[in-house]
Amino acid sequence: MSHGPATQSIVLYERAGCHLCGEVRALLDAILGQGLYKRVDIDTDDALVLRYGFRVPVVSVDGVDRLEAPMTEGELRSLLG
């Protein structure tokens, strides 16, 4: 049984002004489509800042952090394919 993006909860943890976050966002838009994953700005929540700090961007699948910066397009495609 396939567990592709349609059945997964994908979250991108990011912060404003982060060029790596922008690159990963563009890749996710190309792979999944705009609006088909959740974006969370870690700077809006002190607990998220403590959890992720300078590790952003982080891609979480079904509540599990799976990739963090730096990540490649191949890694993202493999994870989400």
Keywords:
81 residues; 3 helices; four-stranded mixed sheet; alpha+beta; 35% helix; 22% strand
Describe the structure.
- The chain is α+β, with helices and mostly antiparallel strands and 81 residues long.
- It is 35% helix and 22% strand.
- It has 3 helices and 4 strands, in the order βαβαββα.
- The chain has helices at 19-31, 46-52, 73-80, and strands at 10-14, 38-41, 58-61, 64-68.
- A 4-stranded mixed β-sheet has the order 2-1-3-4, covered by helices on one side.
- A hairpin with a 2-residue loop joins strand 3 (58-61) and strand 4.
- The chain is globular and about 30 Å long.
- It starts with 9 loop residues before the first strand and ends with a helix.
Task: Describe what is shown at a glance.
35% of the residues lie in helices and 22% in strands. With 81 residues, it is of the alpha+beta class.
